[in-house]
Structures are given as structure tokens and as C-alpha cells.
Amino acid sequence: MNSNNANSIIIPDTEQLALLPEDERNLSQFYKSDGVAAFSTRGGKLTATTQKCMNAVIISLQTHALERFDSVEQFNEAIGENVYELKVPFSRFVDYIGYDRSNKSKAVQVIDKLKELQVDWNILEAWDESGKQIQDERIGFINLISEAEINKSKDEISISIVPKVRRELLNQETINVFDMRICNHLWSDKYTPRFYDICRVYMRKGYANFEWTVVQFRELMNVSYTEKAGVKVWGYPQFKDLKRKVLQPAVDNINESNLIPFRIECETPGNPVKIIKFKITRKEKLLTQQDVVAADVELKLEVIKLIELYRFNSVVISYFGYQTNELMHELDLKAIHYLKYALDKFDQYSKNTQVKSPSGYFKAILENTNNHNEFIPIYAKIEKSREVSRREKELQRTDAFERISTEETRKYRQAVINQFWSKLSEDEQGSIIAACKKYHGQGNLITKNTESEAFKRLLNTYITDVHDPTLINRKELERKIKQKQKAFDATNQGIF
Question: Predicted confidence band at 105 (pLDDT cuts at 50, 70, 90)?
């Protein structure tokens, strides 16, 4: 392949990588096809919030399908060519976006923007191996959703999805396994989730190394652009700005996250830069929350040992204004790191210089204004790492809660339907079956065999979504879910 071609995508034929085992499918996981993972938007108008909202639609649709059918294939077959009206508790949808439930007004604004969003799927296929941009046979831009309506009194959002979009959002021909809540809760920018999604595509295909042209990178990251005389005028036209604002933050965010099992290395050879080279490697170890706590305790013990060795106890107690000499109890995280910073400075100076008054010199280090100022960005980075760790811990708990919610919803729906159906006469059952067949139309093949498992799933959905939506008592369902989640917290106390 020609690496100088401005539009070529270069994937080495050697060095393939089976980075992660294929994740076992279960209700806590969500999927994106290659096309959904690699998409562009008209004008690069995708924002961080509309991307979160788009992910929330995918999560809602896949969860909705698996709560009602045994598989998404069965769900798609049942719905056929109908525009599907997806109904989801609005509070739950707000959770998926990554907002606090009290911030529903902001969610409403984002959903309004989502109505306008037009996407072009699978732009990784927009270039052939010779570097020629393929225009023929591409679908082009299509609205992600055709309509969305929020009923605040029912706490419900209704989203209309056309068949072509629905099938793509549920497409499992090329599955990339995600926890999209990582993207929605962990990062606040729009570029890191885009980069993460596409890296997972390459991982699934088994490539450790891949290269993009700068043009491709802009397209894949959904960098904003305007068109003048048919030519795209990109935001961040200078590569140094593109790297500073888009590329480097996305790489750093992935590499610093303790929830992402891989890291990215990138090179930008040449001047001007035309090609960006990437390499994916597995992180040696993902730290657990217990590891983080253990590291803090180890650092505290190390600092206290050095303070006692140098006999700096009285200096430390006086400087921080502690009421006791129990440093193990008194020292907080910031104090530990500042003392480590000061001790390193003391060791560095005392290696080459005879210190007449070690305690006095150490006190001067602690009180020095320049040292205070130098420590501020050091500790800010430590705090950022701790905040990421805290959010990752919350995400693990959120993931467990969502799995509980999905499983309890399935069980509750089935129990309610079974109870409802058992109280009906044969004539009443026949009437509902006929109404279900009429509702889904004669062209729906599933309705031809009313004894099939697929039709039973379709009938269940018809009963709760169309025939009598009041059968599902949301308050009772929420109570059951919260009971299970409370039990989970009790069992995992101290872990989450």
C-alpha cells in the first residue's frame, strides 16, 4: 500500500492481535456494528451530549428488545418493516445519557437536538485500498430518529425509529462489545468516545497497528466542518491544534482510565503530518479499588517511616496543626503527598550537602511558597486520577444495577402476563391473538404460526405495550428492582 496517498487507510498484513477474548453475551452488555461504531454526521455537528443521547437510544432499544424477546434477531423479525415506537421510562433514559435524574430539563434539550442529527454509517468503508474515496452505493446521511416525544406525567419518552435505522442499531453481523455507559459517564468530550469505539472495531478485527490519514482522522472523529464550493473547510485546520485539542486528549483519556484494558500509542511522522500511526497494547494490570486503597496505605506507611527515621515528627505536627502525634490517624491524602514531595526534595539536597539542622531545613521546605506553587499542579493530577477512579467505581456499580434492572423487568413482565392470560377465557384469548395479528399486519411472517415461540414473545409485547399498558405497575416494578439493588449493595459492602 502507498503510505503517501492522502486518502489511503493502511493496515499491516502482519502483526495481528487477539487483544481481548470475545466477551460472553449477557444482558449487561451492549453492541455496535462496525457501521454504528464508525459514523460521520453532516457538518461534523455531533456534540458530546448528542453522542451520549445517541448511545442512550441504542442502550434503550437493545434493552427493550431483550426484555421482550429471546434475541434481537427475533425482535427485528417480529417488528418487520414497521416504524417502531420505542417507549422507555424517561428517568431511565436520563440515566443512560449520564445525567442526574434531577437534570431532566437538560435532557429534553439534548433530545430536541437528536431529532436533527443525521448520520452516515460505516465510513471506514468510504476508502478503498488504493486510496480512492468510494461514493457509489453509499446510503448517505439519514436521520437517526424520526420523532421523539416526552410525556412528563407518565415519566415516559417515546422514540420513533424507522426500520433501516432500527436494523442497523441492532445489527449483530459485526459485533463490537461495549459498555457505552463508560463513554456516557466517564468522558465529557465527544472525541474520546469516538476514538474508543473505533479502536474496538480494530481490536475485534485483530489489528494491533493501524494508520489513518489526517483527513480520515477528522472524518472519524466528527471534527466540525463547513463546505465552500464543495470543499470541506475543517475546524482545527492546523495539525498542531488538531493534535492538542482532539488527538492527544483522546489518547490520554483512554490510557489513564482504569476501566479500559488497552492503551494507545501514536506517532505523527513527517512535516507536514499526513499520516497518524497507532498501536494498541494490553495494559499490564487494571487496578481495582482495593489496589488503590492499598497503594495509599503503603505510601502513608512509607512517609511515616521516613519522618520517624529523620525525627521530623514534631515539625510535621506543628506545620499541619495536629492535636495528636498519631500521624497514621491524622494524615490525609493531600498531606501524605505533600510530605512525600518535601521528603524527596530533602533527600535530593542532603545527598550532596551537609545539612546542619535537618529539622529546620525540612520545615523551610514545607513552608516555602515556591514549593507550595510547584506542588499544586502535581496534586491536581493526583486528584484527577482519584476522581477517575471514583467514577470508575461508580460505573461498576451502575453496570451491576442495570443488569439487575433488566433481569427483574423481564421476570416481572412475564409474571404479570402469565397471571393476566390465565384469567382469560379461550374466546378472550383468541380475540387478543386476532387483534395482535391485525396490529402487526398480514405481511408479518411470525403471525402465521401462533404456536411458535417468536409469536408468543410478540403477543407478550402486544399485551403490555398496546392492549393494556396499565398491566405493568411501574411503582411495583421499581420497588422490586430497588430491593434487589439494595441486597446487592449489602452483599458487596466495601467493594462499591
Answer: confident
